Amino acid sequence: MTLLPPPVEAVPIGRPQLPNVPRLAKRNPLVFVGGGLLALFMVLALAAPLYAGHPLSMDPFKRLQAPSAEMWFGSDNLGRDVFARTVFGAQISLMVGLLSAACAAMSGLLIGIVAGYNRGFDNVIMRIMDGLMSIPTILLAIAMISLTGPGIGILIVAIAIPETPAVARLVRSVVLSVRERPYVEAAICGGGRLPKVLWRHVLPSTIPGLMVQSANVCASAILTEAGLSFLGVGVPPDIPSWGNMIASSRLYLAIAPLTIFAPGICLAVTVLAVNLLGDGLRDLFDPRAKQRR
Predict the structure, then answer these.
(1) Could you tell me if 177 and 150 are in contact, meaning their C-beta atoms sit under 8 angstroms apart?
(2) Which residues on neighbouring strands pair with residue 75, listed in sequence order?
């Protein structure tokens, strides 16, 4: 009697296999360092009401004081606690960066899938995306804010719109490649409905590149928000922001350097952490990129 081997479940050739991100991230120093720094800033920002003072409290008798046990980073020209304003400013920068990246990723994903899978809309959609890419982010944000007034919501939208075309073009390139693979054609020939095919077979292939591009958008959005706030067209002046702090303290650099260095260093470290996380994710999902470097 011949013993037959147990049946083996067939795996479609070419189907993307997402790696075990937590396990691989521990082996990748860029992901570990970038993700750790970003998580630290997020925890400090969220827990700011528990340990930091009031960022808007002013005391004219404590103007431009040196660091002390009461005010760790000293005070600004209006007697406000620089440490409290720096910590609460992290909430604004991280919120604008993360929400802008999320909006750009979701809209770019939808546009890229439609353009990549539907040849009829591809040319029209991509020409519109090319036109949006030609608009500088800061100029678009200034124009929108001048029409509607300053606000965090309009700032997020103004940053997300110019970043959407880059995400859409990335997703479109992946979809153009994936839709010709055998397992996608087999799913369509097997009677699978288009939404189900896109959800189960096309969408997973776009996730790695989408995560990397979202990290780049987040870092760019944090810098753009700081630049717009420095120019006075970002978040309202009554809301603590790293850009607002640098702008209001630039005249007192020689007297109270921490009023600029504290938000400036936090801004630089946060952007560095997001960039390290993006580079680490690229190496994680595409080992050939690390070998080329």
Answers:
(1) no
(2) 81
CA distance 160 to 140: 11
Predicted confidence (pLDDT) per residue in 57-72, tens digit: 887 778 888 888 888 8
The Cα 2–Cα 177 span in angstroms is 44
Our CA angle for 103, 179, 133, nearest 5°, is: 35
| Number of other residues whose CB lies within 10 A of the CB of residue 194 | 12
CA–CA separation, 63 and 288 (whole Å): 55
pTM of the predicted model as reported, rounded to 2 decimal places: 0.81
| Residue 81 backbone dihedrals phi, psi, to 5 degrees | -70, 115
- Residues 165-217 have pLDDT tens digits of 989 888 888 888 777 676 666 666 666 676 667 777 677 778 888 888 888 89
Q: Nearest CA to 280 among 12, 36, 95, 99? A: 36
- Collect the ranges in the chain with pLDDT lower than 50: 1-16, 18
Q: Pick from 178, 161, 66: which is nearest to 107 by CA?
A: 161
Q: What is the DSSP letter of 251?
A: G
The CA distance from 98 to 41, in Å, is 13
- Residues found in the chain: 293
Tokens for 63, please give them.
């103007």
Cα distances (angstroms) measured from residue 233 to each of 130, 155, 218: 26, 9, 19
CA–CA dist 57, 11 (Å, integer)? 62
Domain boundaries, the chain: 84-292
Rounded Cα distance, 18 and 205, in Å: 9
Two structure tokens written together for 180: 């010709």
Q: Is 135 helix (H, G, I), strand (E, B) or coil?
A: coil
| 237 three-state secondary structure | coil
Place of tokens 């720094």: 37
CATH superfamily of 84-292: MetI-like (1.10.3720.10)
